[in-house]
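Researcher: For the record, we're logging two predictions in this thread. I'll number them. Prediction 1 follows.
Model: Prediction 1, sequence and structure:
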Amino acid sequence: RVHPADSERAAEEFKTCLENHTPFASEFRIISHPDGLRHIKANAYTINDGKGHPVRVIGTNYDITDLRVQQQRSERALSMVEASMEATDNGVLVTTIEGEIVRWNQRFIEMWRLQPEELKAASHQQLLQFIVPQLRNTKWVDQQMQELYSNPEQGAFDLIECLDGRIFERSSLPMLLNHRAIGRVWNYRDITAQQRNQKALLE
């Protein structure tokens, strides 16, 4: 039987299809023993008589439980990744191997004094127009970016000095899937206080 939470919606969708003579396409859950809860995708169409009244319904039900379970697992895993990104004190930016922006955390926005809308439709290259003006040394930026995106499996580690005196430790590492680079993670750590303390000890 159809799950109580889905039955009214599915019935209303089917009724609408009969009234409008349109194909039926719906997804709902059923309670099946001993399998328990199953996810079903249903497709159907009506055959009408000469007066346009439906006399027969022909359709197919597909069990998509495995697909939905995998989707739920992926969504949970993504939620955990995003929670981890927000829990760190580092600024994190995730891009594709082509340089399109995929994810970022709030700390990244704060460190680079960005507006969220500046990241939503931007590539990493376009994002640099907001970051480069904050840097003390800008000559190496484009060259290093091109080198890393041209070599997806290459990593990088360096220090970045800002015009306002802040110092960031930056690392860039590839994201690998089955030993193949599918993206890149840029990690920024503010080490300004640490650098100042080390300098004070040496003076």
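Researcher: Logged. Prediction 2.
Model: Prediction 2, sequence and structure:
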Amino acid sequence: FERRFAEGMKLQETAGGPNYDTGVLCPGCGASTVEPVGRERVSGIATEVPGTRTILSCSKCGLWFRQTTPSGEALKRYYEGLGGEQWPDEERRVEFRLARKLIAKSDGSCDVLDVGCWTGAFLNSLPAGVRKYGVEPNLVAAAKARDRGVRIEGGSVTDLLESGRKFDWITAFDVVEHTPAPREFLGRLVSGLREGGHLVVT
């Protein structure tokens, strides 16, 4: 896993290890047993998000994370301002196919919330009987999702779930790594499930 992660992130090892704050806590489990593993070599849109590129690893839970991440508000402003073509629709993605199979085995009239739904590609691929809801901060992408019949519930999952809404399925594809507090984010998603509901995260 670590090898694949490093290849995907294109880590550039630094001689002697990068400078880092020894007081950093793991955002996954809260442990202080973290150490630097390198620096992320970024390109494209990642260079526009402020924050250092030092990658730390937690020896307790195994999570790799950036030393400094933008605040939730800064990330929200960033994603709201992106153009509508940053990521292509990939309805044939493996994780989409697997999630569709799981949902197909459940009640065909279930409520599905896709967090970070972008233009609604995944939701659009679900059977017509499924009630499709999305959370998407980018206004251009959200408008495209609406055109596909997705009910956009806003740009923040926090506001939506604090309203007490519950869903049979909640999906979040390639979203958790964009959150400043992944453990808290996952907890919020779980709180939005009905009894017996399911959470799918990649």
